[in-house]
Amino acid sequence: MAVYLQIAQDIIEMIQNGILRPGDQLMTESQLCEKYHVSRMTVNKALSTLVAQNYISRTPGKGSFVLDINILKDISKKIPTSFTKDILSINKKPGAILVDYRVLRAEDTGEAARLLKLEDDELVHFIHRIRTIDNIRTALSYTYIPCKYLPALDVTCLEHSLYQYLEETYQIVPMATDYTFNALLPTKKQQELLQMENCALLKASHISIIGTGSLFEYTETYYAGNRYTYHFSTTGPR
Fold first, then answer.
1. DSSP string over the chain
2. pLDDT digits (tens, 9 = 90+) for 132-177
3. In percent, how much of the chain has pLDDT > 70?
4. In angstroms, what is the C-alpha Rg of the chain?
5. In CATH, which superfamily holds the domain spanning 71-231?
6. How many angstroms separate the CA atoms of 164 and 170, rounded?
7. Residue 56 pairs with which residues in a beta bridge?
8. Class of domain 3-66
9. Residue boundaries of the structural domains of the chain
10. 77-115 pLDDT per residue, tens
């Protein structure tokens, strides 16, 4: 690996491990040259690489600063993109940590059963995950999928992209509709799972349908409020 890429990777790892936090200032170019025993040109290439990958910003006369992650999600599209595709679009690494997976009776799923128009005795996949961006915990998701549309589920896929698994394995492409948004404060448990201080959450709820028009999925996602922005255009789908 080229030296400038090694320096960039070293700084990325410090960001991912929380040693460098959003808003923190990096060492000056001179300090980085001294630390890594390299020329200013090499340091400049490393910093330019970090800018291109949306890890830092550089302000002339002030220095280089770690960027906060903010995703702009456009829900005007006919088929909105998944969390994984949103994160890949800004050259970051998406991830998922499985917290809980169970098969429940619809009567035990509360609001999900009503919205998905399920009978009490129908079975439902319940999936609770932590979503990450470059290993930084960013959101909590709670997903409900009726077993009648997805009889079998490989649980190992839940630590990756569920939508990619559905498309590749079952040729299912859910289309999100009926979005609902709320701003709220996190519970103690949500703070622990997201490893964050008290910060407003953006709760985004939606129902997804599949090609037959069937109500396929209900998902609630709680985003760290400063990390995600939803956009809707009144000009209609693109």
1. --HHHHHHHHHHHHHHTTSS-TTPBPPPHHHHHHHHT--HHHHHHHHHHHHHTTSEEEETTTEEEEPPP-EEEETTSSSPPPHHHHHHTTT--EEEEEEEEEEEEGGGSTHHHHHTT--TT-EEEEEEEEEEETTEEEEEEEEEEETTT-S---GGGGGS-HHHHHHHHH----EEEEEEEEEEPPPHHHHHHHT--S--EEEEEEEEE-TT--EEEEEEEEEETTTEEEE--TT---
2. 988 888 899 999 999 999 999 999 999 999 999 999 999 999 998 8
3. 88
4. 21
5. Chorismate lyase-like (3.40.1410.10)
6. 10
7. 66
8. mainly alpha
9. 3-66, 71-231
10. 656 678 888 888 777 788 999 999 999 999 999 999 999
Parallel/antiparallel/unpaired status of strands 228-231 and 71-74: parallel
Buried/exposed 81-113: b ≥16 CB within 10 Å, e otherwise = bbbbebbeeeebebbbeeeeeeebebeebeebb
Query: What pLDDT shows up at residue 152?
Result: 92
Angle at 26 between CA 25 and CA 29, to 5 degrees: 130
pTM: predicted TM-score of the whole model, two decimal places: 0.71
